[in-house]
Amino acid sequence: MAVIPADLHLHTTASDGVDSPSEVVRLAAAKGLSVIAITDHDTMDGVAEAVLEGKKLSLLVIPGIELSTASGGKDIHVLGYGMDAADNRWQERLRLQGSVRERRNAAMLERLASLGIPLQLEEVEAAALAAGGSPSSLGRPHVAAALVARGAAASIRDAFDRYLGEGAPAYVSQPRITPEEGIEWIIEAGGVPVLAHPGLYGWDELAERLAAGGRLQGIEARHSDHTVEQERGYAELAERYGLLVTGGSDYHGRRGSELHHGDVGARTADAAPLLERLAASGREVR
Ligand SMILES: [Zn+2]
Ligand SMILES: [Zn+2]
Predict the structure, then answer these.
(1) 135 with 123: CB under 8 angstroms?
(2) Each residue's pLDDT tens digit in the chain (286 positions)?
(3) Neighbour-count burial of 112, counting CB atoms closer than 10 A to its CB (0-12 exposed, 13-18 middle, 19+ buried)
């Protein structure tokens, strides 16, 4: 089968991306891609619009998600591809994930207030709207943008470094499902679970443990923030366990002149093995 270069990690306004699902599809088409996946945080709300736009432009959109999980006190992301968005139990589980996100935002604002920065939820919502995002799915990038708008941080990067990043004083880790649970949720919704950007966790034993667990089906070896060595190492790990090697830019859009992670198509992986696996399990994407 021919290699199909695809960006399998893209965010839209359905979560904390800047561009609408249609816009992301148009950007991908303009880059010459023929296959992408939309992988918003804990929601598939952007998928239907992207699929429609994709059909107009002859671009195949794989329904995806990026589940927020935690293990060992770290935020761990699990990508899923090909889930049935209409599955009742899956929808109920995603609603639960959304309420965890809301509680986390509230807790971050409390921490910021205790640090002398009484940032209001309305400011975060305004920052999300100003960035073209949706106030219904606020996350750390929106809190960071609100801090910049208020003059409490010089840039998004500065806001993460000083307040919101892991280990910073307003960082909040919320009760999360484990990566193992996220993997099972995705499988039970008919999808293919993939460990997102293992190079960002500083914890390679986790990737090894999940790979050895026999339930994970792929590793995102190719990612905007991975070095060439990391890419090679994770691809080898995937190969060792017979897992798919996936990849993508993790595009979130531009906030001002800042590009979080990478541009659309900045990282790609061969989508053919993933499409084959989905077709073999009766979840053909077209
Ligand atoms: Zn992620
Ligand atoms: Zn992502």
Answers:
(1) no
(2) 789 999 999 999 998 898 999 999 999 999 999 999 999 999 999 999 999 999 999 999 999 999 999 998 788 999 999 999 999 999 999 998 888 888 889 999 999 999 999 999 999 999 888 876 666 678 888 999 999 999 999 999 999 999 999 899 999 877 789 999 999 999 999 999 999 999 999 999 999 999 999 999 999 999 999 999 999 999 999 999 999 999 999 999 987 777 878 999 999 999 999 999 999 999 888 8
(3) buried
Span from the CA of 56 to the centroid of ligand 2 (angstroms): 25
From the options 1.20.120.1630, 3.30.465.10, 3.20.20.140, 3.30.720.120, give the CATH code of 5-95+179-280: 3.20.20.140
Query: CA 115, 118, 119, 123: dihedral to nearest 10 degrees?
Result: -170
State in Å: Cα 11 to ligand 2 middle.
Answer: 6
CATH ID of 102-164, from 3.30.450, 1.10.287, 1.10.150, 2.60.120: 1.10.150
Task: Collect residues with CB below 5 Å from ion ligand 1.
Answer: 77, 196
Distance 59 CA to ligand 1 centre (A): 24
Residue 83 Cα to ligand 1 midpoint, Å, equals: 18
Q: Cα–Cα distance between 18 and 130 in angstroms, integer?
A: 9
